[in-house]
Structures
1.
Amino acid sequence: MAAGVLTIEDDPDIRLLLRTMLGREGYSVSEAQTGREGLRAFHETRPDVVILDLGLPDLDGWQVLERIRDMSDAPVLVLTARSSEADKVRGLNAGADDYLTKPFSHVELLARLQAIRRRRPVPAPARPSFDDGRIRVDFVRWQAYLDDTPVELTPVEYRLLSALVRHAGQVLSADQLVQMAWDEHAGLGPERVKYAVLRLRRKLGWESATSPLRTVRGFGYRYEPLR
Ligand code: CA
């Protein structure tokens, strides 16, 4: 069976180029032009490998990568015009398997695709859950538990909590949380994050001054892990 590759890229010329060269190599190619469309296509087609552009019109490529990693361990090749070393390190830390800057050589792209597919003989969820003995977040089922009891959260609250526990011990700014937890960012300010955090604390029973979901005045929010 042909290996499935999903390209998430808003530039029609590059999509056409990828479609042509990957098709010629025997890949079965599906395409998306935006981050959201890409996530939907990922869900539907379950590709063997993803080529992800970072500069997308709706969701940022980083967010797309994070959500793909919530669902699966499928290899992801990040393709981008950004070429700083910091971006590359960030991409690899965020769970990308490889990183290629535009303009890229066809031969190199194909070689890297093959390499990252070979590197993953046994698919296993990278980080299927977070559990510090106080709260458990199952990133595959998109469900949080307190003492084994499921907590009913809205999608935004769930993503807020996931972002905070994934970065446990680190401060995330309101801006970063907006990027990570909301689909539409336009016009969303720190107040929205503040109220969403308040609601989340209430649902988790973490309203006291010693709440593990800390407000770091002037900086943002931090989840303080139990261990
Ligand atoms: Ca782009």
Note: DSSP finds eight helices and twelve strands in the chain.
2.
Amino acid sequence: MRAHTPAQEHTRARARQDAFWFVHRRKLFPPPLLPTYGARVNLETPLAEVDVMPAPRARQLERFGLPTVGALLLHFPRRYEDRTQFDHFPAETGDRAVCVCGVVKKTTLRRIRGGQRMFDVLIEEEDAGAFGGRLVCRWFNSHWVEKMIAQGHTLVVHGKPKVSAGNVVIAHPEFEIVEDDAEQSIHLKRIVPIHAATEGLTPRVLRRIVWDVLERLEDDAVAQLVPPSLDRMPRAWALRQMHFPKSWDDLAKARKHLVLEEFLAMQLAVSAKRAELKSERGEPHCGPGEIMRQLHASLPFPLTRAQQRAIVEIRDDLASTRPMNRLLHGDVGSGKTLVAMSAMLLCVESGFQAALMAPTQILAEQHFLNFRRLLEPLGIRVSLRTGARREDAADMPLFSPQSESADSDPHIFIGTHALLYEGAGISRMGLAVIDEQHKFGVMQRARLQGKSGEGAVPDVLVMTATPIPRTLTMTLYGDLDVSTLDEMPAGRGRIVTLVRPPEKLPDAVKFIRTQIEEGRQAYIVYPLVEESERLEAKAATAEFAKWSELLAPMKCALLHGRVPPEEKDAVMAAFRSGETKALIATTVIEVGVDVPNANIMLIENAEMFGLAQLHQLRGRIGRGAHKSYCALFTSDDDAESLEKLRILEKTGDGFEIAEADLRLRGPGDLLGTAQSGLAPLRLGDLFKDADLMKLARNHAFLIFERDPKLELPENAGCRTLLADNPRAILSQVS
Ligand code: ADP
Ligand code: MG
């Protein structure tokens, strides 16, 4: 017999295992023995064709986004009630919701202040005699509830109890009337699913529909999507258990299977994308590094170790013929620009041009100034391309790269989106750097990548200061290689952050005035009113007038999205030079702005921003040697939102903040809902299920390694998953 490599052995063992599994799974998980009724259905069957479904009901479900059996079964319950074992009637206020069952003894409808209607339903624990508990369910202005509930009904009630005037009360509980009918086996004495409902489709109605459909579902027609090597549960079994679990344990197993399915779909898309990028043709864009060394020698500070490491990683990529697709990821102020600049020098030295694209004009201008200041002395021609300005550096000592380039061609382009359009004059793009990548859209990145002209794709480096938690990096940027700057440059001033109520504003103003008198500068940030151009301008003007007066006679300036480009330049220049003492601004200053002498930031209505965004904003200060102060003003006294802002008081670690933000608001918001392009997860949770994500990721990689085209029969399920999930366009999106 021919010897096999360990990898081949592994593949064969896997295949044997899988084959065994396919043959025997029916024995291990037999279909339910319950008698089944009606014509059989499969996941593709339209609900209108299910025999028990009245046509209007099917139409209603379709409007609700559930046209087929498959869609209905993927509409998972939002929670479950254990109706095998109700809770005892509570005696005190509690944080946890209880689920109790009782009989209605009395209903009272009262009018209270302001013509409000208050409906009280007194329920008593059944068959518990004198020891039985009682509680009041209370609704305000709920006509439909008033009509539904009457004395003698048995109710299942779910909600948080609160003691009020001697009674235990649950306000606006979720409830169901227990009907004494044949359906009891569906709605009682089991773990009961509570599906997200809509008008006319109550959880009870939906539960009945799902039950009917599951009775007709042909398990053998439900294709297995997750390979058995990842999880052995049959898909049909998992779908059944998700809706009508036999036990909490089975529910957990079913959920695990379906979360893995969801994650695997994502990770297969990532792997496919990665494979596609890897197969593109590129060329080396890496010079010997002499100019880069000169740059580093000219700096007044040493590079951090993290910066050095990132440069080495990028340099290897540049030197290889494989196109680079790398994410440079580091907290605000970690010094990403310098890494990008170094990479661009390596590229220029090899005879190609390099471009840096920034999301705003202010940022592009700042990069332009910065690049010119540092690179012109080294003979590098830097050119600016924004919608507003096109400026080539003229008459400089020329550095001549080794190629046939015309002597006046710029070596480096800095710009905004304008870089993407014709006439930008980039003929030999070797490296494209995208700063604050999360601010750009799909098409823009793709377009810049396509800028090199003849066939070979340029190397691409994307940079972001959004500290992306690990679980998300794997998901969003799974197709990119990642370099992380996990170290801050030495000698940074500390930032003291304080959450403050509006009454404290005068104190803050006094403090800002003394700091300005000592030579410092301040940012005042107010939330953008985005309703209309006119309103926005008005809000800006009002803010500006208010702050000019508060800080008079110190010079203030105004900056927001609608300020015309030339004026923006002038405003930033005056602030940078220290002539303007306070900058009243919207979040246009959120990304990248770098004025080390500014050490104060006051943010109004801080509750209107996300944590990650506040952290970005705060990153504008603490850049010089002076101690910095960030005041978050909020009139919100809601405990939860204060708690949220206090996270910023406690930590300056962007990763910690991003994790908290993600927990509080979900991934969509972290990246900007519209921009993230991530469909909301149906079932999985990026935090709680991080381990499953890792598992799915490793598995997807393995599958692609063994079977890049997904042709093996055991990978048929993966093929379906990939085809059904065009949503995962990933890093191209955000
Ligand atoms: P970001 O990663 O947020 O884009 P920048 O690249 O704007 O950060 O860098 C922030 C500031 O830190 C700049 O003023 C830059 O000159 C400075 N800086 C960069 N690297 C170092 C270093 N190794 N030591 C000290 N200061 C540095
Ligand atoms: Mg930056």
Note: Residues 471 and 690 are 6 Å apart (CA to CA).
